[in-house]
Amino acid sequence: MKIPLFSSKSPSTEIDQVCGMKVSVNNPPGGSWTYNDKMYYFCGPGCNRAFQKEPEPYLSGEKQIEM
Fold first, then answer.
1. pLDDT tens across 19-52, in order?
2. Alpha carbon of residue 2 to chain centroid
3. Distance CA 60, CA 51 (A)
4. pTM, whole model, 2 decimals?
5. Does residue 10 carry a pLDDT above 80?
6. Which residues contact 38 (CB under 8 A, 6 or more apart)?
7. By C-alpha distance, which of 48, 30, 32, 52 is closest to 40?
């Protein structure tokens, strides 16, 4: 039996790697995309497209869009 207080739940929000906004993982407005076996979530379609076009600069922190 799992005790709810100690059960491991995945976070309900993630950070959009393009703009830095918090995004719901249950219903991300910009959808999600898998890159290198990790799921990324986006605040809008523009951030999703930008990340898909060139993910590495966003992941390294070299590039970020100001919102």
1. 999 999 999 999 999 999 999 999 999 999 999 9
2. 28
3. 12
4. 0.80
5. no
6. none
7. 32
Q: How far is CA 47 from CA 4, 12, 38, 43, 60, in A?
A: 35, 19, 17, 7, 16
Which of 38, 61, 40 has its CA nearest to residue 49?
A: 40
Three-state SS at 49: helix
Measured between alpha carbons, how far is 27 from 49 in angstroms, rounded to an integer? 17
Spatial separation of the C-alpha atoms in residues 49 and 64, rounded to whole Å: 13
- pLDDT higher than threshold 80 for residue 1: no
Distances (CA, A) of 32 to 1, 2, 4: 33, 30, 28
